[in-house]
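Hey, can you fold this one?
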Amino acid sequence: MAAAYFIYKGAVVWPAALVIVGGATLGGYGGARFAQRIGKEKARAAVIVIGLAVTAILFWQQASK
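Sure. Predicted structure:
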């Protein structure tokens, strides 16, 4: 619904949006293929480690303001 609203209002920068769509599509397929190669346990561990790292970075940024 939000995407339809932004498109209707002309707020979409189409060249940038198409690059984002392409990157998201390639990243999704590439990430899924990589996860299958490394196995379920390693992929799960990577998601947890990345999530904790992002959480720590965002917390640090907020705490230092």
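The two ends are 35 Å apart (CA to CA). Let me know if you want another pass with a different chain boundary.
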